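Need C-alpha cells for this chain, all 94 residues.
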Amino acid sequence: MPLLSDVDRDSALATLEGWVLVNDEKAIAKRYVFANFVQAFGFMTKCALEAEKADHHPEWSNVYKTVDVALTTHDAGGLTEKDIALAKAFDACA
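Here are the C-alpha cells for all 94 residues:
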C-alpha cells in the first residue's frame, strides 16, 4: 500500500475530526474519552472487530475512561489509506 502524499494526507485529515499528526507525521492519533470504563472497553471491543476485518491494527492504550489511539501502516513506513479508513471506522464506533 503506497504512502499518502502530503496533499492527500492533509486532505484526508481535513475529513477527520480530532485526529492529529504524530511521530514525525508518520502516524495519526486521537484521544477518546467516555463516561466510564465500561463504555471505553465497549468502544475498544467494537474497534477490535473493525481492525481485524481490515487486517490493520492500532497502537492503543486504555486508562479507565480514556482510550488513546495511534494509526500508522508499519509495512509502508507511514500513513496510507488503510489508516484513514480505520480512523473513520473508529469514529463511527464512538
